[in-house]
Amino acid sequence: MNSQNSHELIVSGIHLELTPSLKIYVKEKTDRLFRHEERILRIRVELECDAQQEVASRFKAKGHVMINGPELNATVTTDECHKAILLLTDKLDRMLRRRSRLQKEKRNHPHMTEFADVALPKAV
After folding, report:
1. Residues 36-84: pLDDT tens digits?
2. DSSP annotation of 56
3. Quick one: 106 exposed, middle or buried, by C-beta within 10 A (0-12, 13-18, 19+)?
4. Which of 37, 64, 59 is nearest to 48 (CA)?
């Protein structure tokens, strides 16, 4: 990754040989996620090929985003490895944008809290 950032990308293959071009492709696609969210600590991408599955769901890509707060996990199955990587990064990107939007909404619109049994002084 970039020398000024402490981001970490882990790519692993299950029943699949990771070629240098495949690793570069994963890095290029996941760079977009690091640009959108600065607080990502680590992204782990697992690529799996199951030859016994039908052709339409032969390749599976799993993504795990470690971030401050709850981790984000996504899985995509498709017939081509590069397509699975592209769909996975799109899915993780949507999840990060949704998380960011919900945090922004929560910060801008705090909700009122009711205290049932506590005697609070009345405002004059």
Report:
1. 777 889 999 999 998 888 888 889 999 999 998 889 999 999 999 999 9
2. G
3. exposed
4. 59
Q: Note whether 40 and 33 are within 8 A (CB).
A: yes
Task: Give strand ranges (E) for 5-121.
Answer: 8-14, 40-49, 59-67, 72-78
Closest CA to 45 of 2, 3, 68, 16: 16
Distance between CA atoms of residues 16 and 46, nearest Å: 10
Write the CATH number of the domain with boundaries 8-106. 3.30.160.100
**CA distances, 67 to each of 23, 43, 96, 106, 109 (Å):** 22, 9, 10, 18, 23
Q: Token digits for 43?
A: 């992204």
Which range (53-57, 103-107, 109-113) has the least confidence? 109-113
Query: How far separated are the first and last CA of the chain, in Å rounded?
Result: 59
- How many whole angstroms separate alpha carbon 30 and alpha carbon 13? 16
User: Which residue type does 109 have?
Assistant: H
Structure tokens at 36: 């959108």
